[in-house]
Amino acid sequence: MRISEAAARMSSRADLEHAGMSARAITLKVRDQALHRIDRGWYLDKAEWQALYPEDRHLLRVVAADRRRPTDSPSVYVLCSAAVLHDLPLARVEPLRVHVAGKTGNGHVRASRPLIARHEIPMPEADTTRIGGFACTSLARTVADMIRVASEETSIALLDAAIRRRAWDEETREYDVDAAAAFVADVRRLLPPGGRGVRRARFLLDIGNGLAQSPGESISRLYLLRLGFATPRLQVAIPGPGSSSYYVDFGLDDVDAWGEFDGEGKYRDAAMRRDDQTAEDVLLEEKQREDWIRGTTNRRFARWMNAHITTEAALRQRLAAFSIHPG
After folding, report:
1. HSE on the CB side for 288, CA within 13 Å?
2. Burial class (CB in 10 A: 0-12, 13-18, 19+), 273
3. What is the rounded CA–CA span in Å between residue 289 and residue 244?
4. pTM for the full model?
5. CA 273 from centre of chain
6. Which of 3, 41, 70, 219 is the most exposed place for a label (fewest CB within 10 A)?
7. CB 23 within 8 A of CB 17
8. Domain spanning 215-320 has what CATH number?
9. Following DSSP, what letter does each residue of 6-28 receive, concatenated?
10. pLDDT by residue (tens digit) across 112-130?
11. Domain ranges in the chain?
12. How far apart are CA 203 and CA 200, in angstroms?
């Protein structure tokens, strides 16, 4: 979801009253959980709210909070709130407060409110940008801040997505290694010399890779490394029938195996399939693809889904079912 769509989805109290709802009716609908109150004076149908991804729900919170911000406010959105403005994933976390940094006109930091968390942190103008009229931290600064404070799972998913933004060309389907390295270097320069989370952030920057196509792949790679597997190759091209190629998510070369993270979307979500494809078609294609890869490479092939990466132990158990163990 982008900012314009988020703004269009929300209804103000005035919108609801114009549609014929009284103040009491609005209160009752919120109480009865038919209507979700995003922020003071801004609402969304409860079922629609629950169907959204956590990132989209937080973006709605940011847009609603911004509607009440003074036009001359020098504050900028930071951390997870900047992340959703940059359209980065927030794997395994749903922030309930909008995060901003900046001082008031008299030089003091305003107190936080129930739905707003304010941070007194240095914010050079060079570290800020504007997205759709919203002032927030730059992509590199947002990543540098998040990977110091978020969980490793949340951080690696966000970091990989940001690197991919800089290094992956969707049209040519080529990955620019130099652009990826330059972005990682930019993030590294923005880390403080020491303090909370810096050592972990440096580790994550060492393993970040924009070839990961989803948070599930990013978290899987993190767990593979924790479990003791060698650094896997990502999106490995395997010659297919004729002049085609198949791509496998993980080349587990140290144990002579392939690994594949399957998001459920391509099976359940029609929007992720070709117009003429059914879920059964996708399953058949995946089986034919896997059979070809197994037969031509003589390697074991393990598949896993979100349920198998709830913890690294869960992934270990899944791989063990395919007789795949760390070397």
Report:
1. 8
2. middle
3. 11
4. 0.91
5. 21
6. 70
7. yes
8. 3.40.960
9. HHHH-EEHHHHHHTT--HHHHHH
10. 567 899 998 889 999 999 9
11. 54-207, 215-320
12. 5
